[in-house]
Amino acid sequence: MFESATFEHRLDKAAFKALEPSLREDLLNAQFALIEAKRRSLIVLIHGPDGAGKGAVLNRLYSWLDVRKVQTLTFEMPCAEEDRPPMWKYWRELPPFGQIGVMLGSWYHAPLCKRALGTMGRADFMASLDEMERFESMLHAEGVSLLKIWLYLDGDEARRRLKSLSKGDYQRPIVREWAEVEGAAARKRLHLASEEAARATSTEIAPWHVVPAADTEYCDAMVGSLLLEKLRAMAAEPEPAPLPLPPNPTHVPSLLPPFSILSTLDMSRSLQEAEYDRELAQAQSRITRLTNAPAFARSGLVIAFEGSDAAGKSSTIMRLRRALDPRRFRVHPIAAPTDEERARPYLWRFWRHIPAHGRTAIFDRSWYGRVLVERVEGLCGPDDWGRAYGEINDFEAQLTRAGYVVVKFWLAISQEEQARRFEEREKIAYKRFKLTPEDWRNREKWPLYEAAVTEMVDRTSTREAPWTLVEAEDKHFARVKVLKTVADRLEAALGG
User: Fold this and answer.
1) pLDDT tens by residue, 324-336
2) How much is the pTM?
3) What is the pLDDT of residue 80?
4) Domain 3-236 class, CATH top level
5) pLDDT tens track for 377-387
6) What are the boundaries of each domain within the chain?
7) Cα 10–105–140 angle (5° rounding)?
8) Does the 261-494 domain belong in CATH 3.40.50.300?
């Protein structure tokens, strides 16, 4: 894939000077169209050997674009494990719609580095590339376009340039992406791995563009032209079609009688007061011990609560909070997305709240809203919630690989019990804030929610992150089951 870049590509200074004004004008016009539309964002990935001029290309783009809507996205690049999942830092920095992010180094760095150093086998390397391709497909579907550029420079010339830049009294900043890759053998493995990665992840929606970097003027002109083409292609994309009306809330189409996984639960399960107090205290003590153990400092806990309205999520979380060091956990109540959150992929607002190792994040409602309320209420189309199952599985797999314990609960109650709790809330002044007209209206869509929950559990309950269905008709039983499950999962992950 790098073959054509090995031949000479030159553009003399006079020709570059002649084309630059029109290129700059066209780039600004295309950027203003992106800013005005606010339908998509663009990330420009710039890779290449150290010495190829990545920093110089970045500076050229800044001189051509409206810098108020451009972000530089750079990351420290250790090959060692990080304090959060490897993808966390990239998720956190995603630019909002209407803006451009220029990324020096990206999610490709770690696998390429490990491959070059011989610490990652080919099977794992190809698996990581496959995961990146899925990640980029998700970004594209969620409004983030990608322009992937590899600056090609012969290895000997790249090293000569690096040596030249380091000489003299004034040393300019040098963008070192591969400082840890030393030695001829490692550099050769990096080159071969880079070619393989470019071939494997060059897709229709996010192809790689290999830019010869030996001649600065040619390199800058080609990068600017590629950026202009990408911005124009983004502007030419049709407006998204309006979403169809939500389905009839009283009908779930099926050739067979509808099945609900929630119907398999025994809602009569309960605990007496004395038994409840004893078992709750025991479970809380176990959680306290485990989350303060030295092994937990190398792990983390992410808990997602979903369930029927009035199923007791808040009161259960309150009992869980009492078992945790308040300095090392946060509860994230999830409501309708803000304007800031709507301007990015839907998983962004959850990714940015992933805690550091040794800490706990509790989500009161979660990323499963995409396949629950957004699906049932018609807030996203079937294509969106249909692909979300795989995206969520990838998200949770990344968490578990990074050492996090992911625990997911669905708190279930019957329609009759929900109605009783709603009526109780209406009568108690300090509970009225928990009840809205929307809660009553949602009861009309009970069959659709049951169908959505059944599919959600079927498609996202994995060995690493299984769903726990909680019979919540009796709040005492539900609270104890939840806390026992958290303690059991921690013990299994941390070794007791």
Assistant:
1) 999 999 999 999 9
2) 0.91
3) 46
4) alpha beta
5) 999 999 999 99
6) 3-236, 261-494
7) 95
8) yes
